[in-house]
Design goal:
- The protein is an alpha/beta fold and about 350 residues long.
- The protein has a single domain, classed as Alpha-Beta Barrel (TIM Barrel), CATH 3.20.20.140.
- About 50% of the residues lie in helices and about 10% in strands.
- It is built from 17 helices and nine strands.
- It is globular and about 55 Å long.
- It binds adenine (ADE) and zinc ion (ZN).
- The site of adenine has 11 residues, from helix 4.
Length: about 350
Amino acid sequence: MLKKFIKNMPKVELHMHVEGSMEAKTLWELAHQNNYKIEYNSIDELKAAYEFHNLTEFIDMYMLGTRVIKSEQDLYDVCMTYFKKCVEQNIQHTEVHCDIRTYVDYGYSPEFVINALHGAFIDAKNNYGITGGFMPCFIRHLGAEVAQADWDLMSPFKDKILAIGLSAVEVGYPPSLFKETFAKVRDAGIHVIAHAGEEAPADYIWSAINDIKVERIDHGIRCLEDESLVDYLRETQLPLTVCPQSNVALKIFKDMSQHTLPLMLEKGLNVSIHSDDPAHFNAYLTENMISIAENTSVTKDGIIKMAKNAINGSFASQQRKKELHSNLEDYLSHHQDSNSQVSAW
Ligand code: ADE
Ligand code: ZN
């Protein structure tokens, strides 16, 4: 019953890397279609390799997905497959990561990514009523100079970019390294976000706040190690996009029952649930929410609170936020017993 309630509930996703939504089957088929040789002998063998010990190991597999994409159409198709999943899961607004640098390094133009993502979002709106936008990240382990070069490549397309983030290998690459480039991004009127406190300690979250002035933090789970940071995050209600199954898959928590999301919620932080790389971690948004509800003390009310936080934390227009809230309220009003606790279902 609870599963059905969560599955059908209108949702907003704010943290999802599009290549991370490529199922092993899609990756396999694209590799064969595009004559890209991969070292796995079957789809099952590839799928079996979706086992990670840490973020760095995961990033290697994630990059394999980017290598089999050989045309704008391929990338567009990957996006549209994700949007179809959004329809299935009633995700009505989604803000999606896809890094331009990766494809530029493969010899493509920045338009390769911009056109594919922009085109897919237009079609998602027209075909499914899904809104959202595209958020490339600077790849932090490539360093500050590459990030600056990325900004030079992207800035002519700023009207098609919703936000710029900071992703990939975290430890050793604090946001402070990218301070100057992010100042330019902010001056251009683009929203700034960053992965911080996923694997690295709470200082990285402070650096994202103080040095690059983020409007939202991707992950942020290690904030609990610093009481004054927790106070700051509660007071400012800076949104944290938490990805539970990603954290378990990358061994930040031993299993879902150990996840600190309930504590973050209890402390009054502006947390919400997202999928990060749903195909690699075997859980889209609905499955992430269900897993939290089933394996932790988060109640149904907590799930609803986080669904509201996701709407508020999005970069949707005020008008669209109102619509998203009203769609959620409508849904809740037709599920009157929705205020009961998870344990009562
Ligand atoms: N790129 C894709 N998934 C990521 C994650 N969880 N952290 C950092 N970079 C990523
Ligand atoms: Zn991420």
